[in-house]
Specification:
Ribosomal Protein S5, domain 2; Alpha-Beta Plaits; about 325 residues; 4-stranded antiparallel sheet; alpha+beta; 9 helices; 2 domains
Length: about 325
Amino acid sequence: MLGAETTARANVNVALVKYWGKRDSALNLPATGSISLTLDGLGVEATCAFGAESDRCIIDGDAAAGPDADRVLRFVDMVRTEARVDARARVETRSSVPKGVGLASSAAAFASLAAAVSRAAGMRLEAPALSELARRGSGSAARSIFGGFVEWHRGERADGRDSIAEPLLAPGDWDVRMVVAVTSTARKAVSSGEGMRRAATSPLYPAWVETAERDLAEARRAIAARDLDAVGLVAEHSALKMHAIGLAARPPLLYWRGATVDCIHRVWALREEGVRGWVTIDAGPQVKVLCDPGDAGRIAAALRELPGVERVLTCGPGGGVEVGA
């Protein structure tokens, strides 16, 4: 039985131990597990209603066409099949996150879509099943179902049913900050999906997979102990390994800009001065700095001064997906 029009909202997440590479592209099954922090204040809201005359996708107020709309409507088709629904759908998303620039907008988008579309289709999914559904739209969306610190498991099953995320710490369990330096709002030339395909050509890629479990175990222990220094060190290590893979790929892959490098050096210099901040960078030029709340203002001010930094945001731990009427 179809539900009423449903709206859901999800926040972006930033991987601390990175997801980079797939064991199954069709199902978005990761080659390794990952651990992330969901952020407050950067999110996507999705609304879905079945019973329209034809499928329609609206993104940020405009009727959408092309790859972005196709990706959303493929996801709607998948939910329709599982819910055994034939009705057409009107889907709308509204984002506070620039798309395609390495700020995980797709994670928030497909987490909110998974919740809104499945509920509108009459499904009542528990959080693990919702995580599994969101993953099939965008891999990292599996993590945005939950707030705070989250682990997404690689899983072993071929059908992916065990490749889901679960919370490690709720948003209120540990007060940390993520300072985000936006160095470009231009859409990146190489998508994350294409970047992962290139990564597989790198001679460094096997070492990435081999060392993943060690990084995950280190991060789990550090998060459980609320040890910011240990979490920061493993997060920075994971990010730099991920980008080293791209440099050694064929063709090579470099998401960074000059301002990205300047931000890294500035954070390292601040750390020498006793400021507790560690860099992490996803598939894009933006620099995120995991830090103590007391140091966030100083880090944000230092990054804001650098040429090429367009905007600086400061986020605390965010909540998981929320479903309204």
